[in-house]
Write a structure and sequence with these properties.
The structure holds two protein chains of two kinds. Chain A is an alpha/beta fold. Chain A has seven helices and six strands, in the order E-E-H-E-H-H-E-H-E-E-H-H-H. Chain A has a six-stranded mixed sheet, sandwiched between helices. Chain A is globular. Chain B is α/β, with parallel strands linked by helices. In chain B, 41% of the residues lie in helices and 14% in strands. In chain B, the strands form four sheets. Chain B has an eight-stranded mixed sheet, with helices on both faces. In chain B, helix 26 links the parallel strand 13 and strand 14. The longest helix of chain B has 15 residues. Chain B is flat, with a radius of gyration of 34 Å. Classes of the chains: A alpha/beta, B alpha/beta. At the A-B interface, helix 1, strand 3, helix 2 and helix 3 of A face helix 28, strand 15 and helix 30 of B.
Chain lengths: 162, 850
Amino acid sequence: MLIATSNCFEPGGDMSHLLGWDGPSLLVFLPGPRPSRSLFRQLEKDFLVLDYLEMPSSTSALLMDILSFLKVHFENESWPLLYVDRPCEPAFVKAQGELGRRHPGDLEASFSDEDVLATLRMGEMISTSPVLRDVLSFMCENNIDDRRMVSLLNLSFPGERA
Amino acid sequence: MTDLLAIWRKHASAANILQRRPDFRFDPDFYRSQWPDLDQDPQSLRSHYEQHGQAAGLPTSLYLKAIAHRPELTSAVAGLIVDPEIREAIASGDPEAVHLAFELMHLGPPVDSNISDFSLDAYLSAYPDIGSAGVDALVHYLAYGAREGRQTLKHLRASQYHGRGVYSPDRPTCLIATHELSRTGAPIVSLDLAREASRTHNVIVASLKEGPLLDSFLEYACEVVVTTRPLGDFRHYGGEVFSKIDFAIVNSVESWAFIPFLVANEIPFASYVHEYAHYIIPPYKSTFTGLFADLLIFSSEHVRDSWAGRLKDIEFDTARDSMILRQRGFSVGGVDAVTRDSARVRLSELIGRDLSKVRLICGAGHLQWRKGTDIFTMTAQICHARDPETVFVWIGDGLNFEDISFGVWMKYHMRQAGADQRDRNLFFLPAGPAYSDLMVASDAMFVSSRLDPLPNVVFDALDAGCHIVQFKEASGFGDSFYAETEHFTSVEYGNPLAAAEAILSLSRKAPTAGVEPQLPPRLFGSIRKALEARLSAQRYFVRGASQIDVPVLYTSSVEDRSLRVLEREKMQRYRRRFVWRDLAEVEEELASSGNWTHKKLRLAPYEQVRRVPETEFSIHVHAYYTDELGDDLRRYRAYRWAKRVVFTTDTERKADEIRKIAALEGLSPEVVIVPNRGRDILPFMELFDEGGIAGESEVWCHLHQKKSLATAKSGDVWRAFLMRILLGDESEMSTALDFIGLGDVGLVAPFDPYFVPWNASRELLPKFASRLREPLPENPLLLPVGNMFWIRRSVVLAMRDLFGQNYPWPNEPIPDDGTEFHLIERLWPAVTAHLGMGSVFVHKLDQRRV
C-alpha cells in the first residue's frame, strides 16, 4: 500500500507520479487547502482518501488510523507498504515497490532535516503482520517521536536484518 | 489473621500511591484537607498528626470521618466487597478490615471494581449530577444511594450472564444487539444469528430487555448482557471477549440504543432492519440507524421502499450502503393426506366444529390493528354469507378486552361476528400447541396485516403447503420474489371483499408426499460477508474535528467532545448529512446545486451595530406562553427600535398579562387575540388578511414564545441562539435587519448548524410543488429552522397564495412533524425564490445552539 501525504502532491494537481504504485494507494490530506467534494470523488476512482481535518498527533497515530480504517484490507490482502511525506518522482515510487516486494521482511526509513519521517518502506511481512497494530498502538499511547518509532519498528520486526 | 497491610500494599502499589501512602489508616491528602496550610510531604503530615492531630481527635482517613457521623455505613461497605480475602477478614470481625475495604474502594478505578461491586466511574456515569455537585461518590452511595436503590456494579454484574460459548482469542468477536429476548420475530432472528455465528466467532449478545429466550442465547454466546445504557455499561463488564469486538449486527431498529456505544468504540456494524418507517416513532431511531450503520440490510424491498424519504433526508446512498437479505428464501412444502386429516380431527375437537370437509383458512399472530385481525373477521363475515363451509381460524395471543385502544372494540366485533360459535365460521385459538396442526390442516393463510415486514408465520404456512392470500403493498411478501409465484394471491389493500372473493375461489390444498425440510439459511454468514465487502469498498475516510460542533448521539458537554468528533467522522465518511461540516461545505453545496431555490440562498456572517436601524421594521411575537416575555423585552434593544410590536395570543387573560409586562418596560404593543390554531405561524400569516392588522408594514421579524422551544434547557439555548442572531442584544442591533433592507432579499434567518431536510413534510410536497415555478429540490439545504425570521410582506402574501383562501388548516393537537405548518417552515426560501428574491442565512458559530 502506498500512503502519500499531501506534502508529496498538490491537492487538485497532478497525481500521475503516484499511479505507478502496484497495489492500493492512499492519499492523506493533511489540514490545509482541501479539494472540493467533487474532486475528492474524482480522486477516489484511483485512490483511497483519508481526509484529516486536524493534524494527527504523531506519525504513529496516523499509521494507526490507517490500520483501523483499512482493517479489512490489512487483514485480507498482502503488499509492501510505502509511506511518503515529501515530494517524489515516479521512479522512486516504482523502485520502492519493487524493493518492498523483493525484501518482504525489510524496513527502511528516511527523515527530514527536522527529524520528521519522510519515507518509510515496510515489506509485506511487516505491513500485514497482525502484530503491527499492537506495536503502533503502544507507540500512540506513549506519543513517541518518528525516530523512536522507526527504532521500535526495527526492534519489533528484525526481519532480514536479524 | 489476614495481613491487611499486605493487601493494601498490593493494590496501592498498582495504583501508584504506595510511596505516598504506605498505610491505609493514614491518608496524608485527606489529613491535609483539614490543615490546608501544611506542607504536602507525607512524613511531615504524619508527624503533625502525632504531635497535634491525634490529641485533637482528628480523623486520619475519610472512612474514619464518615463513620464518626454514620456508623451504620460499615455494614454497607461490607456488603459491597467481593474480594474473597477481604471478605474473609471482615467476616473474622477484624474492625480494620472494613476500614481497609473502604479506603481501597476509594482509590477508584481499577481497584474499586476489582475488589468490590462499586465502581466510581460507573456510579458517576449513571448519575452525573453527583459528580457535578462535587459530592464524594462512594460516601454518597453508602449514605444515600444504597437506600435509594441506585445502581452499582452489583446490578450491572447481575445483568451479565456467562454463556456456554467458549471464548477463543484466535476467533473474531461479534456483538449481536437485540432489543429484547422475547419469543417474537426479531429476537428469534437474533437467536438464529447467534447460533450460526457461534460456529466461527466469539459471540456477545446484548439486549435492552430480559426475556424467555435468555437460556437459548446462553447456549451459543460467550456472554449475554442486558443493558439499557450500553455506552456506560460495556466498559464495566468482565471478560476478555469484551476487549476486542470486531463488528456488530444491530438486529431491528428498536436496538438503536446500542449505536452510541458502537460509534464511540469505532466498531463497524450492519443494521438488520425489519421495521417499516411508517411506524418507527419517534423517527430519530431510523435516522440514527441510517446515519451510522456501515451497512443497512432490509428484510424486503417493500420495507426498504418505506425508508426512501428518511434516507433521502440524511443523503444516504441507498444503492451503495444498503441491501436486501430475506431471513428465509422462498420454498413451498406440503403435507400428506393422513397428516392433514388427523390435524383436522384434533382441531375439530378443539373448536367444536367438524372441519373435515371445509375450506380452512388460517390467520396467525398477535391480535392487533397491525395484523388486521379486524379485517380477518370482516372477511370471515363476508364469506359466511356466501359459503358457510369456508372456515376461518386465527391463532395468537394479545387480545386484552380491557385495552381501550384495540381490545375493547375487537372483542365486541368478534362477538357480533359470532366468533367461536359452532354454527359460525370464525374461531380464535390462543398461541400454543395447536399452531402446527392449524398450519398443516389449513388450505390457505389469509395475511390480513396492514403492515407486516416478513412474518415468520407465512413461512410456516408455506412449509405446510398453504396458499397465501394477502393485501398488495402490505408486507415484504409483496416483493415480486414471492408475490409473483403461483402460491400467492394479492388483492387490493385493506379490501375484505376482495380478500373474500380470492379466498372463495381457492381450491383445497392437495396432499403431497413428505417434503424435505429446507436447510436453515446462512443469515449470519451473509451479513458478515456483506459488511466486510462494504467496509472493503469504502474509499473515503475522515479524521478530526470539523468546524461545526453540535451533538447528534451524544451531549453538548465538554466531556463528550471526542465522542462528537467520532460521530461526525462517521457521518462524513459516508457523506451522510445531519450536521453541516463547516461553512465552506455549505457554500460549496449551494454553488454546485442547479436547483432554482438553492441559487437564491446565501450565507452571511453575524455582526451587530449600535446605531438606530435605517430600515423601518415591525416585530410580531406569537405568545402562547408568556413566561419569558419580560426578559425578552429587556434583553433585546430591537423591541424599542421597532416601528410596531404586535403580539398574538389566545386568551384575553394572556393579552392583559402581555400589556402589563410590556408596560413595565415602557412599551405599548398591539395585542391581538387569535384562535389557538396553526402553532405560531398561522397567527402571523393571518395578520396579513385583507384589511388585517399587518397593514402596509413592509419588513417584519416573526418570533414566538412556544413552549416546545422554551421549556427544556436545550430549548432555552436554542431560542437564545435564534433571538441573538435575529435581534442582537440589549444595546446593539443584529445586522440581519440590514440584509432584509436590501431590495432583493425577502427572507433572513439564522443559519442552523444542523442539516434540516423535508422530513415528514416530504409527503405533502406533491400537493404544492406544482404551484411553484419549478420543481423543488431533494432537500431544502437551508431554511429558517425554528420558524423565526425577518421577512418581507410580499413573501408572506405569496405563502398565503400558495395555500389559497379558506385552506382547511389542521386543528390542534397536531403531530410534531409533517403538517402544513412544518412544511411552511421549510418552504419560506422556495416561496422567496418564487418571487425572484433571495434568502440570507446569518451564521454565528460561536453562539451556542444546543
